[in-house]
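Before the break, one more example. Copy the sequence into your notebook; we will annotate it together after we see the structure.
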Amino acid sequence: MLSRLLPGVAMAMLAFIPDAHPHHPSGVSSAGGGGPIATIPATTLEQGSSAAAVYFEMVKVDPFSDAQLQAFAGQHLHVHSLDAILAPTLVYAYGLTNDLTVIARLPVVIRQDIREGHHSHGPAGNTVDVRGDSAGIGDLSVLGQYRFLNNRATRTEMALLLGIKAPTGQTDVDDNYGVRFETEFQPGSGSWDGLFGLAVTRREGAWSFDANVLYHLATKGAQATNLGDRFHYNAAVSYRLAGTGGLAAPGGPMRLGATSASPAEPLPEPMYHGGPKSGGKRHLHKEVAAAPSHTLDLVLELNGEWQDYTVEAGVRDPFSGGNVVYLSPGLRLGYDTWSGFVSVGVPVVNHLNGIQAEPTWRLLAGVAVAF
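Here is what the structure looks like once it is written out:
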């Protein structure tokens, strides 16, 4: 049962590398109890436990019209446009110890309807190159999450985040004209990148408060391109609207066989080797099997990312990078070891460098299982 295997684990730590920038997919998924969807919590998996998730992300972009692209080309500005980014993603996490979890994430990245203006002095004037879609396997990311603080009295946890992004993604996808896409449009980057961060979680009754920062140190990859460092910052508040089955009362032991249909049921205690400690006493009597748990959580998040300029062959692209922040309400429904979730993000900050097509909304949806 999820309530026994992962008491109090939000499992949004599967959502590492949250990427709010409009031209790149994020990494988000969730499985389990109360907590955020896109923000990385500090809670880790129990030793020997696993969780897997598949989720789908769509970032809708406000594309430039052909007339706009032609006008930019007439000013000798290399501006591109795209319609949307799709990113179905697989995530797997494993608890090496009670305080150390390793998470792997592998996306498929699809960029739709890439277009750019083409300057011409001929009779036809400036035109628009419809380059088409770019799709393929993306880069594999592996993140270690080490929980160095687990205070039961205050229900506070803190964790260090350390990982790498490996160049497993495709970097040789061609456009409709048989020309290789620039690295910024490829599914993979071709670079080895470092990940460094910190996550904090605090629980109060039916509430969970989570925040994290993550720095993505980019290096030079395919086509002598550095896509730019990124700084991710996230905060979330989650509320257990309703829950049934096998949850732990604050400060008490796991209640096997217990059920509750009352709203605002307190979130479980942080993990202590399979459940909250009970004074060191071992229960030898036969316990009643718990009914499958049902949970419904409301989530509200701020998901932000700053990205540096892209540098190609030593030349900085003035129309790259910037800062985007999404306000993201979400909902998660859990049953036994399964969890389904959905989140819709709307940009409240859209400060992009130079001339770039801006994101208009982001959808995250998926399903996860603990075992």
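Confidence is low (pLDDT under 50) at residues 1-13, 27-33, 245-266, 269-285. Residues 2-277+290-370 form a domain with the Porin fold (CATH 2.40.160.40). Try to locate both features in your own notes.
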